[in-house]
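Recall that a protein's primary structure is simply its ordered list of amino acids. Everything else, from secondary elements to tertiary packing, is in principle encoded there. The following example makes that idea concrete.
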Amino acid sequence: MGIRGLICIAVGLMLTAAAARAEEVTIVSNVLGPEGPLFVDGNLYFVAWTSGTFSKWDGKTTTVLNSMPGCSHNGLALTRQKTFLVACTDEHGAILELDMKGRQLHRWDADDKGSKFDGGINDIVVTASGGAYATVFGPYQTVPTAVAGKILYLAPGGRQWVEVANDLNYANGIGISPDQKTLYVSETVGNCILKFAVNGDGSLSHRANLALLNLLTPNKNNSWWLGPDSMKIDGMGNIYVAQWFGGKILKIAPDGTLLHVFPIAAGDGTTNVAFGPGGKDLYVTVVKDPNDPQAKGSIVKIPNVE
């Protein structure tokens, strides 16, 4: 192959990369700590931990629905009653229930035994039966020395959260399979996604590793905190997980096989993902620089792949 052929190939690869990036569209800018996107009834709801806000984007305008200093809004889940459960990731931790307009309906600061949510609540998922699981992250340190993550469970119709798993290396994102039989949890410092069997009473068993992210895709850097962040599960049971410090979304099959990598140009601090109508698009919350104490970021839209 001559020089001209090599140049053509190089130009073609550059154009392909440019086209891929052109498909990434920023829809919301200047978000301080973007997380928890959910697309509901034509609106995109999201939270921001640095500004401590819960907001709605209607396709044109962003409206702040809830602002609460000391909460550090992080995870977000929609209940069957069309209310939201919000994870307060402040070190003292709390779980809020808000209505669609952002008004507080309930607040939990401790589990059924009175144990405080020290280390902060990171993420929440609602089950098909109306129950919910939440993760307790653990105390943030530059070099993590504690293995303090937990999983909490709220039974359908229940009013108290119960601890159902512990000794997680900083529990982060959480999701449940379409058949409701498997719970997935991100273990950020371990760079690992765990899976648990869900028992009939909501308790968990058969803990196992589903995927070690460094075996699926090369690490972008060597940070302690480079690992899986929040996740969403599609109707086929595939897991879409954001990799904090990794600048990408990974699509992983229920057996742990890597199906696709979505590189995100807007920043390295990808935190979460939401499905648009019909799952054709993904809405990704991303922090430009994970080392930025303000966590300045945005929400971008990218096309999904089957």
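The helical segments are 3-22, 213-216. The chain has two helices and 24 strands.
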